Amino acid sequence: MYDPELNQYVEETRAFNQVLREQVVMDISTPEKVAAARQPMQDGGPFASVVLDDVAVQRSVPGPGGDIPVRVFTPPDVRAVYLHLHGGGWAVGRPEMNDVSNWDIARGAEVAVVSVDYRLAPEHPYPAGPDDCEAVALWLLEHARAEFGSERLLIGGESAGAHLSALTLLRMRDRHGAQESFAAANLVFGAYDLSLSPSVRHAGDSLPVLTSRGIDDFVGYFLPGRSVEERRAPEFSPLYADLSGMPPALFTVGTADALLDDSLFMAARWSAAGGSSELAVYPEAAHGFTGFPMQMARVANERCLRFIARGAAGD
């Protein structure tokens, strides 16, 4: 299931999970509580972020609902462009919360990072967010070489951002015949079955960060009024899509994540459809763990960086 070498980090990871259970209680049961959850986290908390205004450039890209803000990191040498889609259950989150990791990726893999500030539910339910991501992907397809000096494109994101990355790849293939436009996909603890996979249904409130009820609430804001069966449509749940022609992908997930099965199932279907699929499972790691100050996160992030660098180099 996972590299036995990771066992040396399990106790630290379990201890951090206990901190998460005590400090991270996200209630998004009403739209008002969603709005409150969007407020910046307090400094020093497990989700605290550092905003790198000195190296990030705010730009905008034309989109179907108006200009789409994007946050850009450009290292001295650019071999490819990495389209990054942030997490947050399609309802919270901003590109800024990934500033440190995106700048690390930009420098370490020599890629320009373009992180999309897509429209959020419940104010903007499906298809607003996916439409914005698709629009930025199309813009990069046309402008990446002129803007960044490379037309080689990569894509990736965390949680809802991994889901949106998969949808964007499918849209590029099915709507634009551009299935070869992205050379690699870095998909981190994504949600791929919006009818709720078995691990989500069985999680209850036993795991840190994400509960079954919380995930169902997020999906309800993103797909209001849709039945469980309707949520399985491929345009919503990429697990049920034809996955042929997808680029090489790295799937990252922890065993203490309610979305564990989403990555296990998606990696298997990706591979069965003929794609190159790497599955990296981290013992006892919770949802969002790659953003936490612990060794398991360091190992996972280093593997993601190596994967992105290989994609940028064409290896």
Biggest sheet overview: 8 strands, mixed
User: Between the first and last Cα atoms, what is the distance in angstroms?
Assistant: 25 Å
Helix count, DSSP H or I runs of 4 or more residues:
10
Shape-level CATH architecture? 3-Layer(aba) Sandwich
Structure in words:
This protein is α/β, with parallel strands linked by helices and 315 residues long. 39% of the residues lie in helices and 17% in strands. It has one domain (4-313): Rossmann fold (3-Layer(aba) Sandwich). Strands 1-2-4-3-5-6-7-8 form an 8-stranded mixed β-sheet, sandwiched between helices. Strand 5, helix 5 and strand 6 (182-188) form a beta-alpha-beta unit. Helix 3 crosses helix 10 (295-313) and helix 4 crosses helix 5 (160-176). 48% of the residues are buried. Mean pLDDT is 94; it is low at 41-46.
Short description:
The chain is an alpha/beta fold. The chain has 10 helices and 8 strands.
Topology:
Blueprint: H1 10-23, H2 31-37, E1 57-61, E2 68-73, E3 80-85, H3 99-109, E4 111-116, H4 128-148, E5 153-158, H5 160-176, E6 182-188, H6 198-203, H7 212-222, H8 228-231, E7 249-256, H9 260-272, E8 277-286, H10 295-313
Parallel strand pairs: 3-4, 3-5, 5-6, 6-7, 7-8
Antiparallel strand pairs: 1-2, 2-4
Highlighted features:
alpha/beta; 39% helix; 315 residues; 10 helices; Rossmann fold; 17% strand; eight-stranded mixed beta sheet; single chain; 8 strands
